[in-house]
Design brief:
Order of helices and strands: EEEEEEEEEEE
Shape: globular
Largest sheet: 7 strands, mixed
Oligomer: single chain
Distance between the termini: 39 Å
Number of helices: 0
Number of strands: 11
Radius of gyration: 13 Å
Strand content: over 45%
Length: about 120
């Protein structure tokens, strides 16, 4: 079992920045690929970014590429999402998730999920 807790969400003006964190506990953090997803009201949960177990590869949705950076610190069992140049359409609940293997862009790949943190971007 892996427990994930997100933090760092909040209200920010368009053009601003936020840094989300995901703290993991339980099984060995470095054994899991990690991802960020988001879900806006009335919409399906969508992929934002993912990072491989070895920190060798990162993946981004086209909608955020160039504006967000995913990273992880295996020594601290923590993953991060630095979000810059935020837009109104980035408003959503952001979830972190852990996967052992699979298509990192797919919701169904992930075995463990956090409770989410709200990001609200005012226009």
């Amino acid at each position: 079992q892996v427990r994930l807790v997100e933090s760092g969400g909040g209200l920010v003006q368009a053009g601003g920045s936020l840094r989300l964190s995901c703290a993991a506990s339980g099984r060995t953090f470095s054994n899991y690929a990690m991802g960020w997803f988001r879900q806006a009201p009335g919409k399906e949960r969508e992929f934002v970014a993912a990072i491989s177990r070895s920190y060798g590869s990162t993946y981004y949705a086209d909608s955020v590429k160039g504006r967000v950076t995913i990273s992880r610190d295996n020594a601290k069992n923590t993953m991060y999402l630095q979000m810059n140049s935020l837009k109104f359409e980035d408003t959503a609940v952001y979830y972190c998730a852990a996967a052992y293997a699979g298509n990192y862009r797919a919701v169904g790949t992930y075995d463990y999920w956090g409770q989410g943190t709200q990001v609200t971007v005012s226009s």
